[in-house]
Structures are given as structure tokens and as C-alpha cells.
Amino acid sequence: MSSIVPLMGIETEYGIIREDVETSDPVEESMALLQRCEVPSVFRAWAYKHENSHLDLRGFNVPSLAQDEEEDEFCAEDRKRPYSYWEMKCDRVLGNGARFYNDHTHPEYTTPECNSVFQLVAHDVAGERIVAECARLRNQDLGQNAVQVFKNNTDYSGHSYGTHDNFLIPRKLPFENWVQGLVPFLVTRQLYAGAGKVGSENRKGPSHTGLQLSQRADFIETILSIETMTQRPIINTRDEPHATPEKYRRLHLILGDANMSPYQTALKVGATRLVLSLIGEQKLHNPIELEDPVSAVKRVSRDKTGKVLLHRITGGTITPLEIQQVYLDQVEKHALGQCKETDWIIHEWRRTLTELEYSPEKLADRIDWAIKEKLFSEFREAEGLDWDDPWLQSLDLEYHNLDPERGLYRALEEEGNVTHLFPEAEVTEATRQPPEGTRAMIRGMMVQHEKDNIKNIHWTGVEFKKGPALDLSEVVTPADVEHMLNSKKEQFAWI
């Protein structure tokens, strides 16, 4: 069933700060971080001409975006800087097939496209290691541990930055079908996908004291939108397939959290992939429709029991736990026994929902919000603090710090108090090698072997200074990859 969604990827915008200066400039610091990247890569060759953020999945072109105005403001400020656009972007395409660049005020790491969940999670963690190593080298240059990088989604000053999970889906099914089937799932996915957040930053409603499930929930304002920086939606409608547009859409989900727990990332992405396959095969029966999905996102986030009552369009109420059970039961019926990876996802999905309902303390070894609940509750008791004490928000930030000497999750990992999904050798391999059987494998191989010959590079192709370009737009399956490599043996002797 998972063949309906052949490729997946994760984009992560990292928070960055320099602590030895009065005013930290995130643009300058992101540039300096990227310039210290020692992973073999092609530098400043990204082909922006292939990007179009104004095409909407609902079938129209948006003449302007709210984020364009913010972009113009950035550009006006950037013109005052002594750098070119290319220098500020510091775009790198790495030998493992990933992209690493400066997204204005954040270093952003985008995994290579992967065709299995465990493959993707290994590459997501590999991205953490690469970013953390850049920070270490930058601090080595500074002579002090001044630059700190965070894998999270808020700076507690009203700004949110994203972690986007992406899925290649078939275009033949009407977009409305995907929306109808997916929205209730995404609203309630935070039960096991939320990274946890102390307090709230909800500017249009009541504040929250204590720990909520999700960091992004406060910033979700609508069901559908092409915007990513304002009017953030449950489902983003940007139509950039990064594949043959007649055949595919890219589902670009921006409501998710940055997870420190690899287990949690696997469960989040794996369950989403299986639900998408269920929708794509038109096997999702009696879909649930919520009366107000946007407010439900916040209500679910602020109730860690999963039992808050959500109103249905057809009348009556349903809980987040019940919604997830409906999806899980249907996925299990159609996908159990398909492969080991699918069986693992279904088993862990059911285990997690069961423990959330009956013994939520058992989640504290693998689900970020539950780990924080235990960690911060113990700290509060020891120090006599209330949940609204600013100290706890500082600890929340430190949980996501990539610095092994300061990061709270890193400490728990080192002590063996959280679930390990991979041996470190497998993560190290993912920092160097692209995922097998994907078009990212071809991209990574080109970076490794043809680095000096690459003129431009992007998700669906490579242009060379000498020799014909590679078109990867139709390279989706492992068979496509093998065919492409076989057809290029004359052009590239090293294949």
C-alpha cells in the first residue's frame, strides 16, 4: 500500500543565536554556520529558476503572497549588507543528496528524498549531526561556545519556524479527497507527534499555562493556504511537485513539530504515509469531518489526555484518541503484513495510543512532550516552581539544543534514558552517503564524482558545464534509478 507514496522528505529550519554579542544577527550567523560546513558539497549552484511558490494545488496561480512583502523587506535590509544574494543563501547540495542553505534567518537542512521511513529518519538525524558539527567548528573559530543551534519551532518571542514533512502523492485523485481524508488525522496526530511546549504564544485567544503537546499549534490559523509565514494552514496548498507535474503532487505539511526523538519522527511520518496510502487507494471509509478543525488544533494541543470533545459536522462529538483509532483500524485492516516497516509502524502506533489512554507515563522514553512532562515536573518539584516560571521556557529551549554539552535531550540520550532507533554508525553513514534506490542517490553520486563539472543543481535535475544535463523529474522508483544509471554509463565512466 505504501507504494502510493514513493518518496518522502523532511525540511527543518533551525533556531540559531550567538550569545557573546548584545544583538545576534541570525542572517550573519546562519551564513557563518554554513560556511563552516566541511561535508563534501556543491556550493552556490542551486537553480532557483525551477521554483514557483505561487502555484496553488487548488488549480490557480496566486499573483502575490503575504510572504512576498516580508521577502521584500528582507531584500531591502539585505541590500545594506556587503554580500550578494548567492553569498547570503550559501546553498549547499551535499554528497548524501541533502540540501543545506540559509533560509534568511535560519539555517535549513532538507533531507534527501527517501523511499522508506527508517531511511528518512536516519537522514533526518544525520542532518542534526551535520548542523551540530558546523556549530562546533564555528565555535572553535570564535574560541568560545557562543553559537547555539536549536531543533525546535519557537524562540518564545512570538516567532515560529517550521519542520515540514513532504510526501509525493498521485495527482489523479482530486485534491479535495486528500483534504477531506487527511485533516482530522493531522489535527490529532500531535498526540504522538508533538514536541511539547511550555506555555503558549496564542495572540488571538486565551493563553495556556503548563505543557501543551505541540509547538506549532499556536500558529495554525486556517485549514488551507498557500502561505507558510502568515495564515499558516493545516494543509499547505503550494503546488511544487518536484517531479513530473502531470503525474504527481508534493504534499507539503507545515504544521508539524521538530522532534528530537527519532522514534517519534518515525511514528509521525510512518503513520502519515500509511494514511495517505489509504486515501490514495480510496480505501478510507466514512471519513470524519470536524466542525472547526483550526480551533481543534489548539484544543487538542492543550489537553494531553486525548479525550477533549471535538464537534463533528454531522452532529455529536468525538475525541482525538477516537479519531486516531478510526484511522489506525482502517490502516491495520489494509496494510498489516505488508512488510516489516509497515508492521512496526502499526504496532507502535497502537501501542502508543493504548499507553496514552491507560498509562501515559510509559511514553516518557520516546515521545518528546511526555519526556518533557516527566523532566520538567521533576525539576518543578525540586525547585518549587510554577509552570509559568520563565526558567521552564529556558529549559524547553535547552531540550532542543544540538550542543552535546547543553542539550537536555542529548544528555538523556547519552544516559540511555530514551529510545534509540539506530546505531550511531548508521547515522554517520547517512551523513556521507545518499539513500539507496532514490533519485537523491543519483544527485549525491553526481556531487561526489562530478562536483567540479556541475553548473546548476536542483531537486529534479543536474546541469553540467560539459555534457548533457540529467532530468530526474520522472525518476521516482528504485527501478527508475537503476534505469537512469544504466543509461548514463557512457557519459560517466565511474558508474
The top level CATH class name of the largest domain: Alpha Beta
Shape: globular
| Helix-strand makeup class | alpha+beta
Task: Say how many strands there are.
Answer: 20
CATH architecture verdict of the largest domain: 2-Layer Sandwich
Taking the alpha carbons of the first and last residues, their distance comes to 32 Å
- Adjacency order of strands in the biggest sheet: 3-6-7-8-1-10-15
| Portion in strands | 5-15%
Count of alpha/pi helices: 15
> What average pLDDT do the residues reach?
94
CA-atom Rg in angstroms: 22 Å
Low-confidence stretches: none
**CATH topology title of the largest domain:** Creatine Kinase, Chain A, domain 2
Biggest pleated sheet: 7 strands, antiparallel
How many domains would you count in the coordinates? 2
Can you give the helix content as a percent range? Answer: 40-55%
Task: Describe, in plain words, how this protein is organized in 3D.
The chain is an alpha+beta fold. The chain folds into 2 domains: 2-428, Creatine Kinase, Chain A, domain 2, CATH 3.30.590; 434-487. The chain has helices at 26-35, 66-78, 85-89, 117-142, 175-193, 262-280, 293-301, 320-335, 340-358, 368-383, 390-399, 408-414, 424-432, 439-450, 478-487; strands at residues 8-13, 15-18, 41-43, 55-56, 60-61, 92-94, 99-102, 107-110, 147-150, 163-170, 197-198, 211-212, 222-225, 233-236, 248-253, 310-311, 317-318, 454-458, 461-464, 470-471. Strands 3-6-7-8-1-10-15 form a 7-stranded antiparallel beta sheet. A 3-stranded antiparallel beta sheet has the order 18-19-20, with helices on one face. A hairpin with a 5-residue loop joins strand 16 and strand 17. Helix 6 (262-280) packs across helix 8. The longest helix is centred in the first third of the chain and has 26 residues, at 117-142.
